[in-house]
Amino acid sequence: MKHPYSQESSTSATLESKMGTLAKYWMEMLLVMVAASTTLLAQDSGSSKPQNYASVEDVRQIVGQSVAATERSWQARDHYIYMERDEDRRLDSFGQVKSENIDVTRMITVNGARFEQLLEHNGQPPSSTEQRKSDVDLDKLKHETPEQRTERLLKDQENRSFLRDVLDAFDFQLIGEEILGGRQAYVFQATPHLGYHAHGKYDKMYSKVEGKLWVDKQDFGWIKVDGQVTQSFSMGLFVARVERGSHIILEQTCVGDAVWVPKLIEVRASARILFVKSLEIDKILTYSDYLLATASPYSVSR
Questions:
Q1: E strands, 35-182, where?
Q2: Structure pTM?
Q3: Tens digit of pLDDT for each residue in 123-138?
Q4: Which residues are paired to 215 by β-bridges?
């Protein structure tokens, strides 16, 4: 006979797992929200500017090139093979680690789609069950039908559709210049735009986050993004809320041809599941060994 609380515990564990999985997607979404919206600088002639900046036209040119570089980098990343190390820690109310999982994954391309190939889980190779599931998923992707491919591409477009709305959601201020990682960068501050009315799938988060963006002065790629949640918001298709104070930092590197890709992402997130259970996530993602898929043995086609 099942324990009376087994179903609730199982549901909670499943939601915790989903929170961990969605954390990476939330990170990328937040980073795009913060950085892509820099075009608002060109629209806000009343924003204060650092001394010695000649004109709004100069700022408009910087921002326009930054947005174009950002879009190119995100598209180019889909064509790279790379390694991901995911350190996922759950903390107690005192900030002490109560559980930890470390996954090492090879991100490969299969018929133009990104596929996560698990190599290690907590220092051990994948279990037979994990490997079997991975093989099945890989085989499905390799043999997807035209209809499945169309559905996948439409879903990808939907997941990135918020870019069309984010330009209205934030106000940006150019607050200075810094040298970061040996490269000179413009520094922007992003805050939610008052009066913005959300109408898209993810737009409800826009008024609840803010951050800073460092843009490379040479090729206008993102060097760093520092974002935080200022108001709690619901996330995903299950009952969970990302709490105020959740924090994310992204550091990127240039792999050539003005393509900027993540090298480090750190997230400290608080969430509440089923309106009862509190969840503290401390997540560190490190990326390495970027290689164009066309030059890699891990690029898979039909």
A1: 80-91, 97-110, 113-121, 170-180
A2: 0.77
A3: 999 999 999 999 999 9
A4: 186, 222
Q: Residues 175, 176, 177, 178: is their CA dihedral positive or negative?
A: negative
Q: Decide if pLDDT at 205 tops 50.
A: yes
Interhelix angle 6-36/56-77, nearest 10 degrees: 140
**AA identity, residue 222:** W
Pair of tokens at residue 244: 């105020």
User: SS3 for 148?
Assistant: helix
Query: How many CA atoms lie less than 13 Å away from 75 in the CB half-sphere?
Result: 9
3-class state of residue 66 by DSSP: helix
Higher pLDDT, 207 or 28: 207
Predicted confidence at residue 218, as pLDDT, reads 92
Q: Which residues of 204-234 are buried (b: 16+ CB within 10 A; e: fewer)?
A: ebbbbbbbbbbbbeebbbbbbbbbbbbebbe
Query: What tokens appear for 255 in the block?
Result: 């792999």
Q: How many residues does the chain have?
A: 302
- For the segment 244-257, the average pLDDT, to the nearest whole number, is 91
Nearest to 69 by CA among 294, 265, 299, 258: 258
Q: Which of 115, 118, 85 has the alpha carbon at shortest distance from 100?
A: 85
* Cα–Cα dist 62/210, whole Å: 21
**Alpha carbons 65 and 117: distance in angstroms, whole number:** 34
| pLDDT confidence tier of residue 74, bands split at 50, 70 and 90 | confident
